[in-house]
Amino acid sequence: MKGIFRNLLVVIKNTFKRSVTVLYPQDRIIVPYNSRGSIRLAVNPDTREIICDGCGECVKACPLKLISVEMDSTGKVLKNFYIDISRCMFCGFCEEACEKKALKMNFNYELAEKKFSALRHNITSLTEYARPKIRKFWES
Amino acid sequence: MILKDLIFKALYFLFFLFLGLYVIIYLYKKCIAHMQSRRGPLHTGFHGTLQILSETLKLLLKSPKLFLKDQDLPGTIGAVISIMFAIVAFLMIPLTEDIFLMDVEMSLPLCLSFIMVSCISAFFSINKVELKTNQITGLLDRMSTMLTFSVPLFISSIGPVTAASSFNLFEIVRSQSHFYNILYQPLSMFVFLFTCLLLWQRLPLDMSLKDSFFRIDYLSIQTGLNYLMFSISEYINILSLSILATLLFLGGWNGPNFLHPILWTIIKTIILQVILLFLYTIISKIEGFNRKINLNLVFFCSLSLLNLLIVIFVVLYLKPVFKLGL
Amino acid sequence: MVEFLKEDEKKLETYSIYFEPQFKPLGFPVGMDIELKENLIINIKPEFGYLRRGIEKIVEGMEINRVIPFIDRVDCSSGISTELAFCIGLERNFKINVPIRARFIRTILCELSRISSHLLWSVKLANALGMYNALHYCLREREEVLHLIETVTGSRLTPNFIRIGGVKTDLSDKHIDNLKKFLKSFRRKINSLKIFFLDNELVVNKLNNLGILTKQDAEKLEVTGPNIRALGISKDIRTDDNYEIYDELSFKVPIGNKGDCLDRCMVRIEEIEQSISIISQALYKMPRGEINIYREEINQSSENIFSHVECPHGELSMDISLNEGKITELKIRGPSYNSLFAFTKAAIGEEVENVELILRSFDICVCEVDK
């Protein structure tokens, strides 16, 4: 019977500790800073321009071939940038391959959308996180 | 006049029944949640106090099948029997010297036997499912364990009876005015509490999902009103058993004068309930025929018989020496 | 009721029950066909293949560096052991040098994932026993371990961290401080695990002499891992075939006696303790240095490169063939395949109600059985 009373002591100790549940919609779980979540294109805060120049390293690095880049008629200015997140593995090879640190993975984990077409991002939705209001919300 | 008086007393008593039920169900959900490091009901009402009301409303508003073709007649009969016997067993227990509904001569064995009947009547309510051999053996196994574990329950309650030399609950409490029974009868209180646990329809004798493949769980077939009546009768049994335990062992409504006697009974039942909850969460499942017989005969019955010897010794030899008013 | 009995009495000799793959208490999609005689088991036939994703076929024709995120998904509770097996095989074959600091980091992550895998096993065992307190406590501790892995690698269960010739990023000083704090508090919490499973008399009486696996069956079926160490045979790849830094650290390999459920339980709980001591020794001895020196690409071809690693479930082995830097064939052999058949032998002669307990004590991961 000794073992059962030792069990009792452990249970009594644990009733008076704090509970571990997080009330989800009001509080948010603290996720580490370098966890792999959604993808975004970085923006220079001084000049408000996109750092990416379309070199194509991330296109070669993706094992599922989800990235595609469109250049201008001159061949030097970026026109459009497509990523299909619905089939993404969140492996992080695209972030590793970029040398100019133009493509980064955020710690945002709420990626659900109502329409399937909203999961195919282009250049406007990828740079949305550079807007100051949204950045304040996630970094507060 | 007498009828009016009786109705007034019955309403007064039913008020205590609902209050006790509400407190016990809320304690059950909150305490177990905090033991498992999570929070219980939190959003409906202040810290979840109104969730029990919403659940009963949901079960009451489901369609009653009383007058349709495929009604579940054995199910409703079983449910009605179990809740009636549970309520009658509760109404026979006095709460203080003044608050009581009936003054029956042998109230203790009547209470215990009504509680057992309401627990067992649940098993006569199965008619819908095709039965195979292994499922029938499971049913019979469960009924037989409940019947056999009632034996140490009765034997352990004989200790206080011999000390007070009567079966009446009033006399048992009056004989504890100087000394509570727990001081020299801790063994029988231990046995009483553990068999209370076993009558509870959950752990350690519960039927989880895996067991429902081999045995039939009467509770998983019912819906609506039947389910409500079965589950409420369980909780009423637990309430009445815990009040019985305080009257038998902890002195009932005796206490110092600065509080009303009804408050003493309420405080003592809540303390016992919390102890029962802690024990309930620790014990894992008990399965196997040999293990149950070992627990029953070797452990519980022998302890309660030992306790009887101690009581006889105290009553015969120590009482005239010390003049303790036992 | 009497009529039912009369019809079924003729069939009382042997009859069979079929567990569907969606049967929730078993926990994973494996169907079972059980033959019974008067409540005792005679024979079990398992049915698997419901979780097949075709990982070995997807990987054909890819470059070596791009294969690693797919291999993570083979072992669902500790994704880092398969990556290690892949990289060790290629490094030994082409004689690539790995710096010492990278080796220490790899062992630390391996042992952390071993702790999280064993904690997940204890959660499922507590569910089968009916002890819902122990379930929530073990889940709470597992959250801390997964949080630590996430700060270092970036993801909880699919780390994608090991590269050929080293490791992706370095451990900073803050990571090391967090690890040391965690180890201090975790040593005390292991005692409560022991109290719940090994001290409780009701649990010990239940698991004693249940589901005994004989030595001849175990050697015929080639069982590896904690399941065979519970029989008294000490086979561990960390000590037999040295890889990484295990020959510089001192630790014990726990062994059991009889081979019943209680011994398997005890072996796994003691392995958690040994992992804690391994991590603390490695943190003390780790030197400073580089992480990855290898910057070339592999363009050769070779056949049948073999490598094996001790993952939390047993021995995981791989067979790789290359052709000009791209994979032509990859064969992965997980240890849970053998444990599944060992379970069918161990359950003969037991009652039907104990099937779930015996299954949980073998620690079978279905993602390894059908990849």
What are the key terms here?
heterotrimer, A: 140 residues, alpha+beta, 3-stranded antiparallel beta sheet, two-stranded antiparallel sheet, 14% strand, B: 326 residues, mainly alpha, globular
Describe this structure in words.
Chain A is built from 5 helices and 5 strands, in the order H-E-H-E-E-H-E-E-H-H. Chain A has helices at residues 2-15, 57-61, 93-97, 123-126, 132-139; strands spanning 39-41, 67-71, 78-84, 103-105, 120-121. The mean pLDDT of chain A is 82. Chain B is mostly helical and 326 residues long. Chain B is globular. Chain C has helices at 2-9, 55-58, 68-71, 80-94, 100-129, 132-153, 173-199, 201-207, 215-221, 226-229, 237-240, 261-285, 336-346, 355-361, 366-369; strands at 15-19, 31-37, 40-47, 162-163, 166-167, 305-311, 314-323, 326-333. In chain C, strands 1-2-3 form a 3-stranded antiparallel sheet. Chain C is globular and about 70 Å long. Chain C starts with a helix and ends with a helix. Chains in contact: A-B, A-C, B-C. The interface between B and C is medium-sized, with 27 and 26 residues.
Brief synopsis:
With 326 residues, chain B is mostly helical. Chain B is 65% helix and 0% strand.
> N-to-C SSE series of chain B?
HHHHHHHHHHHHH
Form type of chain C: globular
- Note the main sheet of chain B: none
Count of alpha and pi helical runs of chain C:
15
Which whole number gives the mean pLDDT of chain B?
79
End-to-end distance of chain B: 39 Å
What order do the helices and strands of chain C follow?
HEEEHHHHHEEHHHHHHEEEHHH
Rg value of chain B: 21 Å
Topology of helices and strands:
The complex is a heterotrimer of chains A (140), B (326) and C (371).
Chain A: H1 2-15, E1 39-41, H2 57-61, E2 67-71, E3 78-84, H3 93-97, E4 103-105, E5 120-121, H4 123-126, H5 132-139
Chain B: H1 2-35, H2 51-60, H3 73-91, H4 107-120, H5 133-148, H6 150-156, H7 158-164, H8 169-174, H9 186-199, H10 211-214, H11 225-249, H12 261-282, H13 289-322
Helix pairs in contact in B: 1-11, 1-12, 3-4, 3-11, 4-11, 6-9, 6-13, 7-13, 9-11, 9-13, 11-12
Chain C: H1 2-9, E1 15-19, E2 31-37, E3 40-47, H2 55-58, H3 68-71, H4 80-94, H5 100-129, H6 132-153, E4 162-163, E5 166-167, H7 173-199, H8 201-207, H9 215-221, H10 226-229, H11 237-240, H12 261-285, E6 305-311, E7 314-323, E8 326-333, H13 336-346, H14 355-361, H15 366-369
Antiparallel strand pairs in C: 1-2, 2-3, 4-5, 6-7, 7-8
Helix pairs in contact in C: 5-6, 5-12, 5-14, 6-7, 7-12
